Amino acid sequence: HDGYMIMSLMPFHHLGRDNGRLMVINQETHDGQMAVAEARQMYHADLKSALLIPIVTKGKVHGIISIADRRRRERFQYTTNNVLFASSIAATLALASTSYELSETVPVEQEHLERESNVTNMRNSIKSSLSGIIGSVEMIRSQQTTPDEKMNRYLSLIDRSIGNIQSAVVDDSPETVEMAL
Question: Which class does domain 7-104 fall in?
Answer without folding.
Answer: alpha beta
